[in-house]
């Protein structure tokens, strides 16, 4: 480079790049939004999302379970589909899981793990984030769902397996549930 203009990529979030003379090396700019998020579409600084509710599974949050859904320490069993189950949670010793000692049974009827109601009044752009370790056959045979509701009786599916899921480690999942949860 010989001028600052040659270094500028036109991206607001990168800050103003400069050309170092005489080396001709482009110097990255400084963050125009320290402590905030950056919106490249509108060239503005935006507030970062904040965690409003979280459960780290050190203590049982008391969610509603059906069948063999349970809170506790997983044993690392199972593995008929994918790897074996975990031996601890993503954030501690415990998890909510189906059959903490192994696989689910063939021809299993649909069963649910349901959190307590979560007050999203005054919240917008609501997302659901959690750590997943899942082993489930293709959806021709077995199904896994994430569903949300704002009244406890009508449920919206925000995710379902379309193929076999064979997790062998915890993986972060994030779903936009704003259409159902915002201000609810």
Describe the structure.
By secondary structure, this protein is mainly beta. It has helices spanning about 5, 180, and strands spanning about 20, 25, 35-40, 45, 65, 70, 95-100, 115, 125-130, 135, 145-150, 155-160, 165, 170-175. A hairpin with a 4-residue loop joins strand 3 and strand 4.
* Morphology: elongated
In the predicted model, the low-confidence regions spanning at least 5 consecutive residues are none
Main sheet: strands, sense, barrel: 2 strands, antiparallel
What share of residues are in beta strands? 25-35%
Please count the helical segments: 2
Q: Which radius of gyration do the C-alpha atoms yield?
A: 23 Å
Distance between the termini: 53 Å
Structural class designation: mainly beta
- What fraction, in percent, of the residue positions are helical? under 10%
| Average pLDDT score | 93
List the strand order in the largest sheet.
1-2
Give the ordered list of helices and strands: HEEEEEEEEEEEEEEH
User: How many strands in all?
Assistant: 14
